Amino acid sequence: MSIFCNLIFDANVLTYLYELGLLETCVKAVEHPFTLDLIRDVELKRMPWADVVRREVGVLSLDEKMMEDAVSFMSECTGLSFYDAGLIVLGKCFGFPVFTEDKKMIRELLRLGLKHVSLLEVVEALVSAKCISCGVGVDSVDAIASKLLPGRYTKDCERLRKSFLS
């Protein structure tokens, strides 16, 4: 069962999923997982989970016009990297949600009226689809609240924890 049809992953959420032990499960639970070719072919070579991602995650490339748009986004949003801007452009061009926890990217996605998916949404979807147990869901939201994104989702993590335990 897929939790999302199409989803564009940024490198940070791939790292978070790896740290939670959910990378392979999540990638398999998304019907069409994608990332930017620059991330997959350059950034992921340095990571221990590159083999899983290389086999399972499709790549989307930026054409010349998309690269120009990415540079434009970078100039409009201070601190946005080319990778981040490229992911936003892909989300805009293909209409796919972008799976990210990067605050600058989220702000830009919202400004453009584009969909983003959070780590908590994915954990909740994995539990709902029975891809992971409620116990793994509890462990995941506890790790998100205490280690991966402390302070960001405290109330939402508490709510999910309670729902997974009931």
Q: Based on Cα principal axes, name the global outline.
A: globular
Unreliable stretches covering 5 or more consecutive residues = none
From the N-terminal CA to the C-terminal CA, the straight-line distance is 23 Å
* Alpha-beta classification: alpha/beta
- Number of DSSP helical runs: 10
Order of helices and strands: EHHEHHEHHEHEHHH
Q: How would you state the average pLDDT, rounded? A: 93
- Provide the gyration radius in Å: 16 Å
Strand line-up of the largest beta sheet: 3-2-1-4-5
The biggest sheet amounts to:
5 strands, parallel
Number of strands: 5
- Fraction in beta strands: 5-15%
Task: Tell me the helix content.
Answer: 55-70%
Pick out its properties.
166 residues; 10 helices
